[in-house]
Each structure stands twice: as C-alpha cells, then as structure tokens.
C-alpha cells in the first residue's frame, strides 16, 4: 500500500499506515441520508458508502456516510457520531463535516491499486476511478475520503464536481448570488425571511457620507471633508463612493488630479491623531512629470488641514515592505510546515524552516513599519501619507495596524469591524483575487502581547479568517464596492429577481454573526479581560457598565506626559523612513573593543514607551524583537491532533477569567436592579437572581459551592477540534508514547516489538 | 492601570521604607533588582514604583544617595567615583561604584532619572581585566555573569600603583571560597516569620504518598550516610529486602546510589524509582542482588508484569560508560525489564549549549537570523528531549500502570530532571507553591544534585568542567509546562525567576553544598536562611491567580517544537526593548478585587432593603 506522491512528497506520511480493519467489517448504513441545503443551494453530485478517514493508521473510528457536492459546499452526512464534542463551535451555515467549496485549496484523487494520484483542477478529466479523495482546505484542514465500498462512477463524478466548483471561472458561479437571491428576494419581489442588511448592526459600513462624517467628528479632524465625486463610481471603479479629503482641496482640483494617480486612486484620509496629525493613503503618481507638482499640492493641502501646520511625510510602502507575492509564498510555506509536513521530520528543523518561510519576518516588518508610522504621528506630530503603487494591499495592513496601535476605539469588537470595513473592504482590497491572511496574523501578535487591551479574542479572529471562505458574505467577496454593486445587478437581471427600490442585491455582511453562529457561541468572541473604560472602575460609588463609550477615546492620548513630548520634539531624525532601522551591533563577550552606542530617536521613543506602564486605552506598540513574535498557534495548528494540548492551552486561563468576569457582570446587574428600583415601588422584584442569559461570557460563573475545575474537554485547539480530521497517527486509543518524537530511534524493545506487528 | 509583573511584585510589598533599586522590606529583605538596564534607570517610572505613589517621595530622597541600602550584616568594602559602566543598550555611563560583601552597586547621577545597576556578587562568574592602560589612561574590566549578562566597566588608571583597584576588591568578595572568606549566606541574619528549612520533612512527604505500606518500608540504613553519602538519610525500599542486601546492591551501583522509591501512584501502586548506573563494566558483570532487587520492585506493583528502565543517556554514551566500569542493565540479566534510552546529553553538552544561547541572546539579538541562530544553540532541542523523557515516564506510570526505574550515570543530574518533571506531571501536589518546594528539596537537594559544583558558588574557577546549567534546564522545562497549562500551577513565572536568581545570589543557604550530608555537617539550617522563608513570607507575589486545583489531573504537555518557546522573560530580560508581557494575572487580580467590592455593595444594599422593607423579611 505504499505509494509515493511525486507532487506532494510529504504526503506519503498519510498513506503509509492505511489498514483495513478486518474485525470490524463495515456495515454501510442503509438508511437514507439527505443533504441539508440552504436556500438556493442545489446538489450537483453525490456518492454513498463513503468512508471519512479519522485516523491514518487504522480504519477504527472512521465514519461512514454520503459525500455530496453542492453549489456551495462539500458535505459529508453520516449517522456515526464523533466522540461527544459539545464544545465545538457549530456553524449555522455548515454541518460538522462540511467544507465550503471556496475553502477548498486543492483536490487530490488517488487510486491506490494503480498507484496513481492526480491533482484535479476545474474542467479536467480523470482517467482512473479514484479510491480516495483528499481535500486540502484553505483553513488548513486536510480531509480524506475512501471510496472502497462506493460506486466508482459516482465517486469520480463527485470528485470532478468538487474540483470544478471549488475553482469557479466565473464569479457569478459563486454561491453567494444564488443564496442571497433566494433568501432575500422571493419571486414576487418581496423580502422573504429578510435579513435587513446592516440594519440590525451597530456599526458603520462606510457606504454613506454620514458615517464618514461621524468618523471625522470622532477623531476631531476638523479640516477634512467628505467628498462625493465618485458617487455612482463615475471617476474610479476601485474607490468607495464617498471618502474624505482635505478641506482645502476642491472637487474641481481632485478631478484634475485623478488621472495622474494609478487607478485614479487619489489620497484618501484614514484617521486623525488627537494632536491633529493625519494618516492618509494614496496610490503612486503615474506621470513622472507631474509627480513633483502633485506631491507639493497634496502635501500642502494636508499641511493646511493640520492645526499646527505640521509637515507631511511620505512613506513608500513598496520600497519598505515585502510585496504580496512574497507574502503569499511565505504563507504557503508556513502551511506546508504546519500542516502538511511530516510531523517528525519538520520537528527537527522547525525553527529554521519557520525562519526560511519568512512569514514571521514579514509579520514583523509590517508591525515595525507601522510602529514607525506611529512614532511619526504620535512622537513627531507630523501627518503621514502611505503610498503604494495601487494602494490596495500593503496600505490596508499598515493603516489598520497604525490605527489599532493608536486608537483604542478600534480595539473594541465593533471598532475593529468598522476598521476592517473602512480600511479593507471600502478601500478596495481585492478579496476575490487575494487570500491575504497577513493582517489577522499581525493583529494576533498585538493581542498576544496586550491581552487585556482588546475586546475580542483570537477565536474571533480565527473565525473571521475562516469566514473569508464562505462566499455568502458580501464583505470579503469582491475586489471593490463597485464590483459588488455591478455584479449583483447583472445577476439580478439574469435571474429576473426584482430588486424593487434597491440598486443591487444586498448581501449580508460577515459582521452579522448570527448568520453563522448562535449567540452563545458568539460569546467566544468576547475577551473577559478587555479594559473598556468602565469595565473595571467603580467611580464615586456608581457602577459603570461593561459597554464602553467612544467619548473616552482621545483623553488618554492627550494626557501623555509633557516631558515625553519634549524629548520627542527635540529629536532630529531624518524625514524619511529608512529601510532597515536595525539594532546597533554590540560588542561580543570577548570585550575586544568599545563601540559607541548610537540610539536613533525612533528607538529611543520605543524604549521610553516600553519603560513606562502601558495605558491600555492609549498607544500600544508591539514588541518588535524577533524573539517575541510567535506563530499564531490557534490559527495554524488547531487541526493538527498531535499539536493539541489536552486540558491545556490558553483557553484554560480564558475559562477561569470568563467565569470571574461573568460573576462581576452578574453582580453589576444586581446592583443596577437595586438602583433602578426603589424598594417601595417594586417590592416584587427579586434582585438576588438576575437573569444571566444576557451575559457576554461564554463560560458562566459557577456557584461558589461547586468546586471550580477546568472542563475535561478544553484543549489548545479550543473551540475547534482536530478530532474528525485527518491525523497522521491516530490519537484515539493509542499510547501516548507513540507520538513522541524520536520514538523510532530509541533503542527500545517495546518500540521494536510494536514495529514488528 | 496597566502593570508589569514587576509592579505586581512591588505592590505586594507591605513596606514603607524602600529604596528604588532595592525592592525589599525590612520584614523580607530583598532578592536584588532584576530589572533590565532600561527600567532600572528611571526614578520616576522605575518598575518597583509603579502603582506605589506613596513611595515616591521617599525614593526621590534616596535617589540622591550613591550607596545602596544595605542588608543586615552587609558592609561596604570599597567605593570608587568616576567609574564608567558601558551599557550595551544606552552607552557609556559615568557614576559611582560600590562593592559590599554581598553586592555590586553602580549609580550614575548624570542622567535624569538616575541609572542604577545592583547585582549580588554571587552572580559574577568571572572578572577580567581587559587590556592594559589605554590612551585615555583607562583600564577596563569585564564581568561575565551566571544570569546571561556581561557587564563592562572602565576607570582611570590608579596613579599610585599601590592602591588596589576596586575591581580587585570585587574579585575578592565575588569569590569568597577561593579567597578564604565566608559566603554571605552565612552572615545574612534576616529573620523571617517562617523557618524555610522546615518546609520539607521526608517522613511527612512519604506519609502523604501513603508510605510505608505493605510493599514499601522506610529504612534507617542511611541515617549516618554510611550506605551512600550523596543520598538522603530517609529512603524508601521494598519491604522484602533487608538492609544487609541493600548494602550488596549498593556495591553494584555507581557511588552506592541504590534504586529507591521517589513516588508511588495512589491507585495503581506503580512507582517511580531512581538510582545510578549499574557497575557492569566491559566484562558485563552481573549482580544477583541487584537483579533480585529490581524484580522485587516490579513485584510490588501487581498491575504490571514488566518494569521499565529509563536510561537518560544516549545509548552510545551509556555503552561508553562500560569502559569506566559503568554501563546499563542488560535485558538478559533483568528478566521482564525493558530498557529505554532517552537520549539526553551530558552536562558538558548542556553547558556548551547555554554558552551559545548566551551569545545569541545577549546583549542584542540578530534580527534576520533569529530562529536559525536559536536552533543552532540546540537549547530548545535539549529542553524537548528532557520533557519528552519525563513525559514517557509519566505516561508509562499513568497509562501503563507500570513501575519505572530512572537513572543516568550518577543519578544526580538528568535523573533528577526526569523524576521531578514526571512527578510534576503526575501529582498535582507538586504544582502548588509548597509542593514545588518539597519537590526541589526532595528530588534535587536531598538526593544530592551537586549544586555547589554545578554552580560554583564563590569559586573563581569559572572554567571548572563540573559547572553546568542542569537545574536551569529543569526550571525552563517547568516554565514550558506553565505555558501549556496556565491554570494548572499555583505559582507564577516570577516564582521561577526568583528561584533562579537566588540559585546564584548566595543570599540564602538553600542551594549551598552538594548533598544532604554536607548540609547537615555545615549546619546550614542553623547558620543560613532558607529561600523558602523569604518566598513564603510574601506568597502573594508568587501566586498564579488563575490556578485551579484539580489535583487528580495528570498533565501531558505536547513536547514539540511547535509548542516550545524560548523563555524570553528570563533569557532576554536585560534587553530594555523587552517589556514583560501585560500579565493576564494582573487583570485577574483586578477583577477579583472588583468582585469583592461589588459583593460588599450588594450585601449592603440587601441589608438596607431588609431594614427598609420589613415586610420582605417576613
């Protein structure tokens, strides 16, 4: 049964130990299995008597069922239940074994009798009947099906269908159109089961001028205005319809400048520092003759918008940061190392292969560059322009990181969502063309370092990343908002869906989490440690609620000690950001020579900041030492059974914290009830038992009489579970020692005896 | 309010009189300032002060003083002005250097806030005069420290060559053993509320484990360390083996370190046994007594008909030991026993690995090749092998219900690492603060890990081949476990760092000497203070607030590079660009305080309500 795979050599590891367990001759269930379909979802092909492999070294624990390819997902329906996993986050759109087609990265078919394997692409032929199908998913899962008992022809058809639909050539094949068409617009043009798009959400989507106005007011950007020259996408297809520009630039000027910028992407305002410095992003100027003049005009306009008329610095992201091809290559390598690589082999060279993937290096370069921009805005009081060729990739990362570091508002759940909406979705990041995972990993780093400063958890970020692969949400589906509008209008026409008053099909945004998760599971997004103002402080005897208000925002930054400011004002550093602001080399332990240590103002700024206690409501600068960046383990390793720590992982701390936070919340609501009701008016109310169903915590407080203990089911993969996915060696029921690296090289009679079997 | 772990420590103090660089109180005299070069410089924001506004006035006054605040019996030996400390992060700093019989204290007043360097002399491993007089007429000295740092000073050449340089004084007091002086621990007379030497009582610990029982007895054969001078006086051996036979077994085991019980599983009766290598030699010598002895150990556990012998060494090294008369148990001679080599390298390899690690992490790390540089030190690989070995032992005992015998060559380095880590995985008691102290006292101190030789307290011979970071590795492994199980340990990272700092400081007697016999002879419990007295006098600072006491849980850490990390909070703590992570713990404590406050308010309101509305209470 040993087959080598030339295309994916590391693959052999899965196939070595396949055995057919004779003792447990499979009895394929006869009962009919039906696919669970969403509105607009149709079955393309299906095959019965399929075995989903759970362990690689035996068929023990494998699941029998039906494999279905729909226009939305690869679905596996089974009667067999996995060991009870009450903790696993259940997605309302997907079953336990389902994979959205858009999440399928690679489809590999195998015929082990013939020793053949093939990577299937769209519209390809398959010359053999597959005995096995392996799906490599973009969310790092690897799922393997065996067709030993299945009809060879239908198995083949399902494989081809999965390959075809997972890589649609035409964006309109994306399921989102069908789904939204059926879900929201009945044949009579009435909204069926209507999801009010964005209506129930308490967050700006930045698709109307008022929302930009509010953001201008919030950040105190008095000299900036909303510009609507792109209404109806008349001047640029990739710009949002409304954006913000300096007051001193008239629409007339802007229209004149437009054509000199790549893709007409003129400077867009992102954010204002309380000191008046602005963060602006723009594309490069395509006409070299105009460059100087335009630069001057733009800069002087931005200077005019600064209360102190401070300078403007331009940061060329293309020169200073890795390009997106590099980033994608690094991502592929990390995945190879984390998930696909053979456990023991990758173990030995783990650190150096992590380094050679350059993933963390890139993450760090983004963080570092962003921190340098923070220094300019915060420390030097100057405005900064982020310039990138097309202004659609790197500037999304940098601008949102800068705002996360400086503005506590964006560290709240809704704030963060509005940040992603503003800097990624509306600014035209090509979600359809790119699978840019970088941003979330970046943010994860900051979260790791300042766990209490963020309202959301890493579970939230993981789920958000996963949602990119569910093509139902408008948020991540298109390259720009214009494409979003246009495509859906076309689709509506072709399907004769009456749109009524609306311009286009309205897709639910990903931010409507109830589309995917129950409210209980959504509680996993909440960080029990989040120090929103008022979450901890009991001031003057009044208890403040957990929900924080935006008003608190600027005061903390303004309250920076003036001494720090003075130090920074005195700095004389160059006006351009240097490529590598590397650390000054220091003498070796041999004490051979004395070298003067020169500390750049930027470093001084960071060091000063590090030396004082962090104000979680103020500026946060991440640790930039490479030794302090670690892989985002939940995201990259959650499906790897061997990497899952039983009864361990940071979730055990999260569990304890959540319980306590829940208790605090309960007490607070009890107090509120006392306050709201004078004893005389509502004597019937029973304040000692407040309803706890509104709690924001996933883990509820336990009564003080019960012994507190960590649930057995917690693991470092929580709330995901690697059980049910391919693992190279079964962890079900085998002795632990078999997983330990190097077991083979140990001269143990035990090992030898096992291998002889 | 944000705080660092340093704040936690600081705020835990109950003192009113503190100096900036000295986080001590009178009740609990301090360890020493462990702050990085950066944090130590700021009087206004020094970590000891964060969140302690009351202390500020006092400190500002203190900051005008150039001398340290002295401990009891500590005395200034020399003081020199115009000494330059060449800080690898900030640059040259000119100030006053003070040397006492306990510490080195440097203070630079030119800077605002003043810069302070304060370290116990015990940390110093080597003092070197670098080069002759330079053009500027300066001589410079390098200090290599045991805690990863290197320090460099320079000062003007003495015009009168008869006057001793302060660094010569420093060398005298940094290496008291080499200079016929007493180690400061024997002078330090601080009185603590608890006598730390009473933390461990072998009889009580064995009683906790349910010993003696029908299969195991406590023998007095080593009461005067006659059977084995590196073993404790209290030993647990099989009931059926009389003391006479133990002596014959001792003859066959290196240094007489016979197999004895360290831990017994409360349910299965599977045991963890430790010993040294058998004296097999090139001729494959056998000992009927030793074979019978191991058989008896196996028989004491009815659950299994096998015995696992874990030899910590790589098989090649174990075989090479035959040339020196040692070796390993052959499976022919020991029926029903299985031998497993755990591939952990010897003290020399570990020392070299730490030396490389130091090069990679101090003072600065090379940004572009961090991971491959780290990999080339093999430090994490060694950590992994030790943890993996301990995990196999714990798994065998817990899942396999099998008794295990653990040894290396002498059974006092790798064996101590393995048994104590396995016991930490198996027994929740050792994950408490006091339990961990018991574990160290038992597996490391009483069973003769040679701390004096491995650390070289007060000894100037820094090239001694007996020095090795074996204990540091063990603490690193414990830290890795804390990372993986953040709620399973009662103690925090600061507890581990404090233990390591006082491993070198020579302030407490705990890590002095090489064996229980020597400690008794030197009357350490009478003449010195135990580290546990200091720690237990302020438990609050060392407590992990997230701790959940689930004593029955066995912890199986994932021993993979995917989860192992360099302990930056220890190895990179001197870098001023490193900020201790915003501790979850701190936040948890804040929430606890808030809960207490809310509870109080709710109770008050309930009481008011009852009084205001009598009909409700009816």
TrEMBL record, chain A:
Pfam families xref list: 3-PAP, Myotub-related
Gene3D superfamilies to which the protein is assigned, alphabetical: Pleckstrin-homology domain (PH domain)/Phosphotyrosine-binding domain (PTB) (2.30.29.30)
InterPro entries, per database record: MTMR12-like_C, Myotubularin, Myotubularin-like_Pase_dom, PH-like_dom_sf, Prot-tyrosine_phosphatase-like
Region (Disordered): 673-695
Domain Myotubularin phosphatase residues, every copy: 206-636
Biological processes annotated in GO: phosphatidylinositol dephosphorylation
Compositional bias (Low complexity): 677-692
GO cellular component terms attached to this protein's record: cytoplasm; membrane
Recorded family membership: Belongs to the protein-tyrosine phosphatase family. Non-receptor class myotubularin subfamily.
Record PANTHER family: MYOTUBULARIN-RELATED, MYOTUBULARIN-RELATED PROTEIN 10
Name of the protein: Myotubularin related protein 10
Species name: Hucho hucho (huchen)
UniProtKB/TrEMBL annotation, chain B:
Keyword Hydrolase applies: yes
Annotated InterPro entries: GRAM, Myotubularin, Myotubularin-like_Pase_dom, PH-like_dom_sf, Prot-tyrosine_phosphatase-like, Tyr_Pase_AS, Tyr_Pase_cat, Tyr_Pase_dom
Ranges of residues in domain Tyrosine specific protein phosphatases: 377-424
EC number(s) on file: 3.1.3.95
Active site: 408 (phosphocysteine intermediate)
Start and end residues of each stretch annotated as Disordered: 1-35
Subcellular location: Cytoplasm; Early endosome membrane
Molecular functions per Gene Ontology: phosphatidylinositol-3,5-bisphosphate 3-phosphatase activity; phosphatidylinositol-3-phosphate phosphatase activity
Catalytic activity: a 1,2-diacyl-sn-glycero-3-phospho-(1D-myo-inositol-3-phosphate) + H2O = a 1,2-diacyl-sn-glycero-3-phospho-(1D-myo-inositol) + phosphate; 1,2-dioctanoyl-sn-glycero-3-phospho-(1D-myo-inositol-3,5-bisphosphate) + H2O = 1,2-dioctanoyl-sn-glycero-3-phospho-(1D-myo-inositol-5-phosphate) + phosphate; 1,2-dioctanoyl-sn-glycero-3-phospho-(1-D-myo-inositol-3-phosphate) + H2O = 1,2-dioctanoyl-sn-glycero-3-phospho-(1D-myo-inositol) + phosphate; a 1,2-diacyl-sn-glycero-3-phospho-(1D-myo-inositol-3,5-bisphosphate) + H2O = a 1,2-diacyl-sn-glycero-3-phospho-(1D-myo-inositol-5-phosphate) + phosphate
Binding residues for substrate: 321-324, 346-347, 408-414
Recorded GO CC terms: early endosome membrane
Keyword terms of this UniProt record: Coiled coil, Cytoplasm, Endosome, Hydrolase, Lipid metabolism, Membrane
Pfam families: GRAM (PF02893), Myotub-related (PF06602)
Major subcellular location class: cytoplasm
Occurrences of domain Myotubularin phosphatase (ranges): 196-571
Annotated membrane topology: Peripheral membrane protein
Any GO BP annotation: phosphatidylinositol dephosphorylation
Similarity remark: Belongs to the protein-tyrosine phosphatase family. Non-receptor class myotubularin subfamily.
Listed PANTHER family: MYOTUBULARIN-RELATED, MYOTUBULARIN-RELATED PROTEIN 2
Function in brief: Regulates the level of these phosphoinositides critical for various biological processes including autophagy initiation and autophagosome maturation.
Protein name per Swiss-Prot or TrEMBL: Phosphatidylinositol-3,5-bisphosphate 3-phosphatase MTMR2
Upper classification of the organism: Eukaryota, Metazoa, Chordata, Craniata, Vertebrata
